[in-house]
Amino acid sequence: MAQKKETVYLKADRNIEVEKRAVTLGDVLKIESVNPILLAKLKAIRLLKFQKESSGRPKKQERQAVSILKVIELIHEEYPDVEIENIGESDFIVTYEEQKSAGGIWHYLKAAGVVAVSFTGAAFSIMAFNNDVDTVKLFGQIYELLTGRASDGFTVLELTYCIGLVIGILTFFNHFGKKRFTVDPTPMEVEMRLYENDLQTTLIENFSRKEKELDVGSTDTHGSDRP
């Protein structure tokens, strides 16, 4: 009777960040097997190694696109009889980024700068829109039509418009501070996920077109000294 082969399941996210230059399969993949000994050995297999700069210092950030076929090839080099099931991405990006400290006061200054720019930009956009459609004149005409009196520029219409604008913004963005009004993702989160997906697709395609993707038959483009 033939011996039953081991089955290994692999799952990779689209983009994985690592903190060390020598990257193993366990650093970037979720691996599952009923054999705990095999599982530990698979996680220790070297995938790639990010180089240092000519000065000897590690680069602050670097990316490498990897094909899941390269991962399968590395596993089969060590364990040719293992059956592999990939339930994740077929191509993924490994991003090495040099770890930095929290930043202290500089971090808070940058956050305050972003808040100030965002607030100023939003306020300018609202004022430009109101000026473009001449909201003041429109409210004045509506107020005079309904009451028979001329508007002094600040009536119940302007007040309710300001309140409604705030409510509309909070409803649209679906949160205020850390409080979320519904379980749905906010429009900003949706746009950020779409941007990340487009960015990752572009990176993978660029690596593939330049033939720099770590794929079957290719060697470690970062100078790994894999045994």
Automatic annotation (TrEMBL):
The keyword Transmembrane helix applies. Residues 6-99 form the Stage V sporulation protein AA domain. InterPro entries: SporV_AA, SporV_AA_N_sf. Keywords: Membrane, Transmembrane, Transmembrane helix. The chain crosses the membrane at residues 108-129, 153-173. The keyword Hydrolase does not apply. It holds the Pfam family SporV_AA. This is Stage V sporulation protein AA.
